[in-house]
Design brief:
alpha+beta, Thiol Ester Dehydrase, Chain A, 5-stranded antiparallel beta sheet, about 40% strand
């Protein structure tokens, strides 16, 4: 499963040189995950009300070129791998055709107490469809 969003860089996301501060890429990645779920007809808020919390277990980013205030960025997110309790995503950030950053994250599913639990059925179905499997890997 792959999804794309556009982000216009705001002034408050930049440092003193007008370049996007590195920490903001992780916010962009989160926005992409939320929007991908929304595009599939679901919401993080509904999952949380049902007792499913999707937390970042691991995240990284490799920066290749700077983004600046006013740039329009295209962020491509892909669900790369899924198990019954986690999902691995990849991210690519572009300004036009220039690759600015690449990232990866592992998202775990926990309950209100922080105990690892199985992904809800709706995410298991999305994972299976995205990875081409009849069901997500255990």
């Amino acid at each position: 499963m792959q999804h794309e969003i556009e982000i216009e860089v705001r002034y408050c996301e930049t440092d003193g040189q007008g370049i996007v501060h590195h920490a903001n890429y992780f916010q962009y990645f989160e926005l992409a995950r939320v929007q991908m779920l929304k595009a599939a007809g679901h919401s993080y808020a509904d999952l949380e009300r049902e007792g499913y919390y999707l937390v970042v277990h691991n995240i990284r980013c490799r920066y290749r070129a700077p983004a600046c205030f006013g740039d329009t960025l295209r962020l491509v997110i892909a669900l790369e791998r899924a198990t019954s309790a986690r999902q691995d995503h990849s991210y690519r950030v572009y300004r036009e055709e220039t690759l600015l950053a690449e990232g990866h994250s592992t998202i775990a599913c926990v309950d209100r107490q922080g105990t690892v639990q199985r992904m809800p059925a709706v995410l298991m179905e999305m994972s299976a469809a995205a990875t081409g499997a009849s069901r997500a890997k255990p």
